[in-house]
Amino acid sequence: MEKRQVRxxxxxxxxxxxxxxxxxxxxFSSLDDMAIVSLRAALRKLPDISPSSRPAEELVTLExxxxxxxxxxxxxxxxxxxxxxxxxxxxxAALQAAFGAGAFSKFAATTAATVTAQFAAHTAVLPDRTAxxxxxxxxxxxxxPEELRQVVSDCDEVDxxxxxxxxxxxxxxxxxxxxxxxxxxxxxLLALRKTEYxxxxxxxxxxxxRGEPLDWELQRRVALIDDAIWQAGAExxxxxxxxxxxxxxxxxxxxANRAPEFEPDNxxxxxxxxxxxxxxxxxxxTAIVHNxxxxxxxTGLNQTxxxxxxxxxxxxxxxxxxxxxxxxxxxxxxxQAMREEIGRLGARVAELERALAEANTRxxxxxxxxxxxxxxxxVGGANLFGVLAAAVWTVSGDDIGARKRLETLLEYRDTxxxxxxxxxDCVPVGVPMTDPVEV
Length: 439
Hints:
20 helices; mainly alpha; single chain
């Protein structure tokens, strides 16, 4: 099939164009789908970024003059615009990046790779619908017949992937079986992996090649690097990316166990009377720990029954909440730390609720377990759950959702272990189980 015929087929795939490339009024299925197809086409061109007269190793290290850096900046910025729903700050950065890529192509080293990067960025970020469509048509003129067939394949995949909630940006870049796509990782782009200033960019490109893009939040932060740093050249950009990655990894580690759905909006009130809150969470935490010690001693079990595992994890969150109040003055940072820890506590309470609900569906099976009677007098005691509920209620504030969860939790406990008057109550801290002392 001739290039002209393939190009016409590509235009018909999206609709909205006549065969000569002029825009008509028929709507696209999605302008952003068109932009993603364009960006993928530009990425396939990227390995040919280097003009033949200049070695890739030299090209990627030229400060402020690299052919690669303006194009990579334009592409990463445009990708994040699509991914983050045309966020204003990203769109502004991407427009600046696209302009920079175009200026470089005009005045320095024009190659098919630099030009397609510019046009692809325009399909994502230009404010005018017709201008975005025209950029798409212009990009097609720079593609080889094989690359155009890849675009046809991408257009076909859009209809197949979208209903399955899979995006093209998470699909391997070369999607035709007769293509050795790993060849695109070889020279001259292979030089990126060997170049101190461009290791990130090799990982970035390889991620798209394999259909496993780098974390989008990381890409967003790179796209928002200040223009002055981009203009300072590859070394300055590499230093800034290294700093961004350190911060990003630290935040990921800190947020690994976060449960935002359980984080309260307001925690300021907890800092008004911190000593009373610390005392309350401390009593609950200590009571749970102590009753588990008694439970193990009386049952001889080394392994906690599955239904009780979420309860055993709760004291850690209660203790950290107490530590924050006891050691930190009220500030934006301490309030955020408190929100996150209350979120973790809420998640563990929800896990306990689910575990008790599941246990209630097989209550007859559990009746034969020797540990259940001991649990009812220790870790499953009504007073212990009451102390826990009071502590969780306090730190959750007036959250109605938290109140409902606690009420449901107590109902599940009563069904499984009996009401407050149905068994010996939980064992107070420091009191042997054999001593019948009321709490």
